[in-house]
């Protein structure tokens, strides 16, 4: 696609602030959702601070060549729950979050060293376009349920039925979501200059305005169905980030070898799963900016940035970080790949984490409004993966089976729990796709059956 701002381009200062705010809105909901789900005294503002610092670390390791924001990772939710479940106290649990993140980060560091020694040609060999393309599509499609769930957050459900029951509040939420969705699309397609570059800001503000009108009417009339925004959040604002390392100070004294072993089992296997998604994310971003990030700055650098950034993020906010598909989607839709914008977003996240009223305002954005935005973000991720598949010769059954298996396994929700480790549908589909591709791409004599893949490997 044609980029309005390339990786090294620097928008004007005023525009950069607006673009950074848009990126922040794109990643906000998921970043602050993780501490909200885990609870145990975890802080949303600290998670936002940790995401900002982690992103800066990532940008430094990648020589400011990879325009993506790092936010709280959902893949480690089970690991974080395990950290608190196995701890003798809450403070020990917070200490466990930091130790666990260090374990996960060290996995990335170890893989990065291997990649530095042996190169990345093996990745192109075991993960050609017929594997990476549908896997990237699955990343977006696997999030489709989350987006629609947010859009219809206020709708009811009926036992034994997968259909949403449209209550009065459900209709109100759907209206807000559709307003957001259509404003984003209209601005992106028909907008002029700045409107085309900031469709998410305009869309979210439009959706929020409609939701605010409904909420005011509901408060005035006593009709709960219209009350979409929870303004009561402003009464209990957290005025400063409650950093994890402060809560963990006493907890380190309560940790024994058994608990450390529990953390290792909970975090290390998940890190290997997230590694597979790391490659898919960076292959997707590479296709958008038309520069192979696994070669320049190099996969070893993106891994180090992700791993060390994850450790630093957990030190402040408790949540290991990961590259965000929402951020990649924002780059794809707006055509703004300026890494300076990502840096500004990171600085903004750090600054805003200390400004309670604004963090609270962001928290009051209704899920239905964010759902309207995520329909486009996740959709673009899926489509970018399908665009990779377009370059694959699907007349060859070997390629056709690989793509088919990945799509069905991913869309079908083939998530496997093995002991305490959960393989997400993305990781499972990717692993299965790699195996199928290796089996079908070779003849008995060991020669590569897919001539196109062979030439691609030789070219590297």
Secondary structure topology:
Elements lengths: L12 H26 L5 H18 L8 E3 L4 H9 L4 H29 L2 H6 L2 H14 L1 H8 L4 E2 L6 E2 L2 H23 L3 H4 L1 H23 L22 H4 L9 H33 L4 H24 L3 E3 L1 H10 L4 H14 L3 H8 L3 H23 L7 H15 L4 E3 L2 E3 L1 H16 L10 H9 L1
Antiparallel strand pairs: 1-4, 2-3, 5-6
Helix pairs in contact: 1-2, 1-10, 1-15, 2-13, 2-15, 3-4, 3-12, 4-12, 4-13, 6-12, 6-17, 6-18, 6-19, 7-17, 8-10, 8-17, 10-17, 12-13, 12-14, 12-19, 14-17, 18-19
Describe the structure.
The structure is a single chain. This protein has 460 residues and is mainly α. Helices cover 69% and strands 3% of the residues. The protein has helices at residues 13-38, 44-61, 77-85, 90-118, 121-126, 129-142, 144-151, 168-190, 194-197, 199-221, 244-247, 257-289, 294-317, 325-334, 339-352, 356-363, 367-389, 397-411, 425-440, 451-459; strands at residues 70-72, 156-157, 164-165, 321-323, 416-418, 421-423. A hairpin with a 6-residue loop joins strand 2 (156-157) and strand 3 (164-165). The two termini are 23 Å apart. Mean pLDDT is 87; it is low at 444-449.
């Amino acid at each position: 696609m044609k980029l309005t701002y390339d990786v090294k381009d620097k928008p004007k200062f005023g525009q950069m602030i607006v673009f950074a705010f848009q990126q922040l809105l794109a990643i906000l909901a998921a970043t602050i959702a993780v501490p909200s789900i885990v609870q145990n005294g975890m802080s949303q503002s600290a998670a936002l601070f940790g995401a900002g610092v982690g992103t800066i670390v990532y940008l430094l390791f990648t020589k400011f060549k990879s325009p993506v924001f790092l936010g709280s990772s959902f893949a480690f939710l089970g690991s974080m729950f395990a950290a608190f479940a196995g701890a003798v106290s809450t403070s020990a649990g917070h200490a466990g979050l930091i130790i666990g993140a260090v374990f996960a980060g060290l996995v990335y560091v170890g893989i990065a060293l291997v990649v530095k020694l042996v190169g990345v040609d093996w990745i192109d060999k075991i993960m050609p376009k017929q594997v990476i393309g549908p896997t990237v599509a699955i990343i977006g499609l696997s999030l489709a349920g989350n987006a629609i769930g947010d859009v219809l957050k206020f709708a009811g459900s009926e036992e034994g039925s997968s259909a949403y029951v449209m209550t009065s509040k459900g209709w109100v939420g759907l209206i807000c979501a559709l307003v957001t969705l259509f404003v984003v699309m209209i601005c992106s397609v028909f907008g002029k200059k700045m409107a085309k570059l900031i469709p998410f800001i305009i869309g979210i503000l439009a959706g929020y305005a409609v939701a605010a009108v409904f909420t005011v009417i509901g408060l005035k009339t006593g009709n709960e169905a219209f009350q979409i925004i929870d303004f009561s959040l402003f009464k209990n604002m957290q005025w400063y980030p409650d950093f994890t390392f402060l809560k963990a100070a006493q907890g380190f004294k309560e940790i024994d070898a058994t608990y450390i072993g529990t953390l290792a089992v909970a975090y290390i296997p998940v890190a290997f799963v997230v590694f597979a998604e790391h490659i898919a994310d960076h292959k997707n971003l590479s296709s958008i900016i038309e520069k192979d990030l696994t070669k320049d700055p190099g996969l070893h650098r993106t891994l180090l940035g992700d791993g060390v950034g994850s450790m630093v993020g957990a030190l402040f906010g408790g949540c290991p970080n990961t590259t965000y598909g929402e951020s990649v989607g924002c780059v794809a839709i707006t055509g703004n790949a300026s890494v300076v914008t990502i840096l500004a977003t990171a600085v903004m996240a750090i600054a805003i984490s200390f400004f309670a009223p604004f963090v609270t305002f962001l928290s009051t954005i209704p899920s239905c409004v964010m759902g309207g935005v995520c329909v486009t973000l996740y959709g673009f991720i899926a489509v970018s993966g399908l665009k990779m598949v377009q370059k694959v010769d699907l007349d060859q059954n070997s390629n056709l089976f690989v793509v088919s298996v990945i799509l069905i396994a991913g869309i079908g929700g083939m998530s496997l729990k093995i002991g305490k480790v959960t393989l997400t549908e993305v990781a499972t589909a990717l692993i299965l796709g790699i195996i199928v591709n290796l089996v079908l791409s070779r003849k008995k004599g060991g020669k590569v059956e897919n001539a196109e893949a062979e030439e691609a490997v030789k070219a590297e």
